Amino acid sequence: MSSIIKGSPHRRPNDVEAGSSHSAHSDDEDHEFSDGPFDITRTKNAPIDRLRRWRQAALVLNASRRFRYTLDLKKEEEKKHILRKIRAHAQAIRAAYLFKQAGERVNGTTIPHPNPSGDFAIGPEQLASVTRDHDFNALQEYGGVNGLSELLKTNLEKGIQGDDPDLLKRRNAFGSNTYPRKKGRSFWRFVWEACQDLTLIILMVAAVASLALGIKTEGLKEGWYDGGSIAFAVLLVIVVTAISDYKQSLQFQKLDDEKKNIHLEVVRGGRRVEISIYDIVVGEVVPLNIGDQVPADGILISGHSLSIDESSMTGESDTVRKDTKQPFLMSGCKVADGSGTMLVTGVGINTEWGLLMANLSEDNGEETPLQVRLNGVATFIGFVGLSVAFAVLVVLLVRYFTGHTNASSGRKQFVAGKTSTGDAVDGAIKIITVAVTIVVVAVPEGLPLAVTLTLAYSMKKMMADKALVRRLSACETMGSATTICSDKTGTLTLNQMTVVEAYVGGRKIDPPDSSSELPDTLTSLLIEGVTVNANGSVFTPDGGGDVEVSGSPTEKAILNWAIKLGMNFDAVRSGSSIVHVFPFNSEKKRGGVAIRLLDSKVRIHWKGAAEIVLAACAWYLDTNDGIVAMDEEKVTFFEKAIETMAAGSLRCVAIAYRSYESEKVPTNEEELDRWALPEDDLVLLAIVGLKDPCRPGVKDSVQLCQKAGVKVRMVTGDNPKTAKAIALECGILQSEADASEPNLIEGKVFRELSDSRREEVAEKISVMGRSSPNDKLLLVQALRKRGHVVAVTGDGTNDAPALHEADIGLAMGIQGTEVAKENSDIIILDDNFASVVKVVRWGRSVYANIQKFIQFQLTVNVAALVINVVAAVSSGDVPLNAVQVCSLSCLYACMCVSTVLNGYEYSILPSLLAASMG
Question: Which residues form the catalytic set?
């Protein structure tokens, strides 16, 4: 028994439930499960057929209740079947429409005039026939996306008005972005399931028999005591169990609603506003970026290298490129690459995604390591109890019918040929009742209930601590974490960036927003580069007032800096048209855009990591508006500036451009999609340093983890010198002496190591700078091979493999993309490292309180079992009868609640610290 619980704070190598120490993620996801039919090296993402084999491998007492809070394998299969059926249904409808459309073209028929819907000149049925059926010809008949926007009274630049009357009209005409959900199980369903407990059924039969015999032998006035008491105790156990299960079901449903409530940006009245996915209406203009979920059905307005992962709807794993020829977007799909904007044409049940979700019922249960272990323990003890009870039953029946059982008066209870049949049956039933009592004592029904209550309570408390649990088992696995690989920006820092230093025109300007020191041409090019190569936006209210800037913290900081230099965002954007975009890429560490000016000239603007952009620059623009060759002295000057800013914990970003021959720009749309923006021979415009201060209290949180035996490692895409400065400030690095290899390493150095060497180095790494998402994945794999239980934070789409591979994936709730969140186990709602530490605390408290309960219950169970068995064999009677045992079972439930809930108030911090001491 001790081995079941002892290993919880620190995983042993090859610990089945805690997860294998071997690398799990590969191109073939089933690789880690291929050793044998029953091998499950880690419970995370375990194949359903393996879980089924485990359940069928041995007889389990009360299987329906033992597995009531674990993954419902039958429902999983039904869900997949429904998904396949809806996909086939949607494709059949689409094929039928295409066939009908082909016939109409042959017969010369045209698309009918749109039927009005309320205040709009088109109805939801016509919109659905265009988008859901991917009817490109019908879209052209309506005038394309511009024609649809007029019918929906939408400005493609400024979006809908977005006031309450406008939103109400749209919801009345086209519906809301919700879908009817299947009702959860009622309270009486839980009562019925509680009644199916095998032990309780045996007790019910015993109660009826005892009641009948008692009334027969002793009369109604006194004969109902034993039978009635047993029935009352059984009824009480059923009610307590049903109430507990029903409350946990409601709690899981509430958490599931939180998971689905995605927040995203839409354009309303010319400004970007953040709303819930449930508040989207038809006619919205929605910006889409890499990692976002498409929130509704719609038509692409404009896009740049936009690729959509439609596997959730079509089952096809290949991404689909979206452009003017393929403009249809389906709700529930993910943006795999690029960016764009869409016009919403269908919401809620009028989309395939809504139809799918309305037909699927959520199953909140899942297989968790602790539940698997304790279910096994409870079953084993149950078998022991049954065996002992059967042995006692045989012994007592033999003693009784051979005349060796005496009444309290000393008279033999059974004498062959003299004792009546009724008395003999009565005596036999009492003996069976004694055996049933022993079974009741032996079976520890409270164990699975204790785990369920503990995990549910943990989830509730973690939600209050800004951690949304997506996988139940993550609650307990997080308690076993031995290392945390954390991002820097937004997790260890505040993610509130400002430009505090700037090198423009070949020299440092102080203050950084002093436009008076800069010539007009340089300022104009710099503002143009910031404006067109930005994923954010700037909104200026018509009546005056403060300018509103949206976008990522880095984008907002640079846009605010450009505003102080005199930028007019809308005017600059209207002075050019975008030809092609290379979205910012965490692998390349830079992003670019090609624009065509009003005079047909083409410019290419780049922005990204300072040292990477600087390496591509052959020129720089000086303060006299002259383009000067980048000689060795100037390169050294800029490199020194970057090092100085990075050493001061600043994020360094460079801005550059180049002119390009208009005739070399591809004119064909397909060629343009494949066009690689030239990134050489650039002219450097500016290098800026952005300050992002550390979060208050992050140093204390890091120290607490270190004391508890959890090593914190920083993995960031920033300059290694910036990472070093922040790590020293946070306490991840103790001193300057620690800031050398292998404690501090660059991503490209780490990825070039051999597998064996990489494992050795991974053990020592504290900070990894200039890392790519693949470097993070390699680090996770190396640490897991070394036997670590790894928790990883991530926010980008490219972090998904590392989040999937880690034992616990922690996605950021504010900056995280939907792809990252879906691949995570827990979402940190405030992006704060202190919340990660709280998750570790709750995880360890799960084990601490389960240990307390096991000590309590098994002590009572074993003591009661031994007392009853010894007494039954020696005297033929038991000191603890069925009524008393049932009362004890109710007491177990109450003590279970008291232990696992009240224990949290004082056990969390001591358990965290005690685990680090062995």
Answer: 487
